Amino acid sequence: MTASTPQDIAREAVKRLTARKLPPTPENFQTYYHEVAGTRPLKPFPLENLRQIAQALPDATPAQQRFKTQFGKAVSLHSWEDLEKALTQQIRSQAPTEAPATAPTVTLPAQERERFPPDLLEQMARLVGNALPAVGNDDRKVVELADDLMRYLRLPDQHPPALRKLMADFAFRLSFVAEEQAAIRETLLKLLHAVLDNVRALNPEQPWLQKQLSALIAVAQPPLSIRRLEEAQSRLKDLTRLQLETQEQMLAAQNAMKETLAVFMQRLGETAASSEQYQQRFEHFAHQLERSTSLAEMTPVLQQAIQSARSLALDSQRTGADLGALRQRASRAEAQVAQLRDELQRLSEQASHDALTGALNRKGMTDVLERETSRAQRLGSSLCLALLDLDDFKRLNDRLGHLTGDAALQHLATVAKAALRPHDSLARYGGEEFLIILPDIEPDEALEVVRRVQRELSTQLFLSGSERVLITFSAGVTQLFEHETLAQALERADQAMYAAKRAGKNRVLRA
Ligand SMILES: Nc1nc2c(ncn2[C@@H]2O[C@H](COP(=O)(O)OP(=O)(O)OP(=O)(O)O)[C@@H](O)[C@H]2O)c(=O)[nH]1
């Protein structure tokens, strides 16, 4: 494929640089750019020499001063075009015989030049400054070009060709850096997935870990947003905390098990050794008995044998008791490990999400509320809250049973989550009460979002066996005002929700 547009040429040049393992310095890039484009590289601008000439120019008369300024400006902008213009004008103005009667002046007065509105220039300078953090500070060149451009935009007077060149240089470099940043983000995300997949594959027998990892993988999906990343971060923190909390106890239980096994083995070894001793002793008695010829000879041997048999019986009774105790200890340790595993699973589910509905639990809700309130304050954006309470839920429980009631709560959470915007959060506030946290939204729009949830619930009916059950809720929506506490806003939402109940239920009111 032949590169035709400047972007294609630039991309191909970068590929060649990478293939030849060369650092992406401006010089290297320029060389390969020309190689791809089939053009000749420009000669470097002799800045120092021209600067010396500019300094040496006389400035005794106003005309000389004007020429000197114009020349100096052209040099600092590396503009051959401007230099050419300055020189030809100067020569013309100094050759009265050749110059027309109305020879143009060297520079036009500022008010006659093409001028940009100063507020537009300031906006452009801000735009450039604001774009920089998005591409990071890794590329020194783009920062330098941005500084040059911003400085130039803030000068009292601008020259269109110079401005065009500064903007083109900056835009070109910026596109290059932005592309690289996007590639870095994508690669980091792939890396994160690879790490998570790996941990999952290495721990197939840890259901709680599998569940947490799956949730993490689901969160870490493009398009990335800061909220998704924060959620992933908070889940990872939960995971680490849980592991640390339970790992110690788990290790203690496993060590107890190991010790028990060691003692068990030792006792078995001892039993084997003592039975060998008894066996030898009995063989010895048998020989003696074979050799004895009279009852008198046999009697002491038999007495010894009986004595040994008694000790053997006692020993094995004790060993049996010991082994029984050890067995009990082992099964106690085993039960403890199993219990810890269950506990881990339970804790893991309760970390920041409600186990029944998958909505945020109180802890998760507090974290999100903290994050969103400080973000709203920082950005001066509007944050709304909606408190939902299911209607006649007691009757549903009484009629269809508590388990069906649980399933209805799950249904509500699923439908609500799907109907909300990606950055809204659903939390289980109490038994059959939910809180929706709606960032960056005005109250009227928030009201509409909650009504959308209401509409979705009325179309996606809950199925109890073959019965289609309509679940409704009453809700109060409010905005969190500056300088008020969360509790105050929640109280207002609560009152609006009760007003909705009093007004006949299945409605959303604004506080
Ligand atoms: N199945 C189930 N029921 C729950 C759960 N949490 C709370 N409830 C029930 O929700 C019902 C709430 O009843 P009430 O406060 O009287 O409200 P309601 O029947 O919805 O009446 P209104 O709010 O006036 O519409 C109670 O019966 C609770 O037992 C839960 O996790 N599962």
From TrEMBL:
**Leader peptide range in chain numbering:** none
Q: What class of enzyme is it?
A: transferase
Keywords, comma-separated and alphabetical: Coiled coil
Q: Which GO terms describe its molecular function?
A: diguanylate cyclase activity
Please list the residue ranges annotated as the GGDEF domain: 381-511
Q: Which Gene3D superfamilies match?
A: 3.30.70.270
- InterPro entries for this protein: Diguanylate_Cyclase (IPR050469), GGDEF_dom (IPR000160), Nucleotide_cyclase (IPR029787), Rev_trsase/Diguanyl_cyclase (IPR043128)
Coiled-coil stretches are 323-350
Note the superkingdom of the native organism. Answer: Bacteria
What SMART domains does the annotation carry? GGDEF
Q: Which CDD domains match?
A: GGDEF (cd01949)
- What reaction is this protein's catalytic activity? 2 GTP = 3',3'-c-di-GMP + 2 diphosphate
Q: Where is the composition biased (Low complexity)?
A: 95-110
Which SUPFAM superfamilies is this protein grouped with? Nucleotide cyclase (SSF55073)
Where are the stretches annotated Disordered? 91-112
Give the EC number. 2.7.7.65
Pfam families for the chain: GGDEF (PF00990)
NCBIfam families per the record?
GGDEF
Q: What is this protein called?
A: diguanylate cyclase
